[in-house]
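thread: overnight batch results

M.L. [08:02]
morning all. the overnight job finished for the chain we discussed friday. pasting input first so we're all looking at the same thing
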Amino acid sequence: MDFLRYAEASAALLNADMSHVDGLVAYLDGRDRLQARATDRDCMLLRKFQRELRPVFEAGEADRVSEVVGGLNELMSRHPITPRISDHEGHDLHLHVATDNASVAELLVSESLLGLANVVCDLGPDRLGVCSATPCTNVFVDTSPNRSRRYCSERCSSRANVAAFRARQKAGAGA
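M.L. [08:03]
and the structure it wrote out:
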């Protein structure tokens, strides 16, 4: 299990439109087996999870360590995770979330929580952030070497930089 990939996927899950199955199917791009099993109930459960998880990212952005840890611990209590060792033909031992009888939503929640818990423990709770670009409210996992990420995407970064440049130009012209 690539915990970083699962943590980043949890941010994408939080940013995804779960108002209908098409949004969930789009989020599951490349995971054909899960796309075929996606239901309206999964969307409803994932919308609830989005509301529960967002405060954890907001606490990470504000560097409130105890709230990140407490929030993740609470979510892991409500959504138990069952990891299993996977060996893919005897090689590359790693962890996966057990999928026996799990719904799509249960699997995605488990992957998200296990990935985030590992990233918070390995890199720190301040690696969870909220985009600084106005009016964007998307979240992200900062994997930069010096914890310098401020935007959810290159698009938001570019938009913010252009807006700042234009503001400086306007201020310079007015002086």
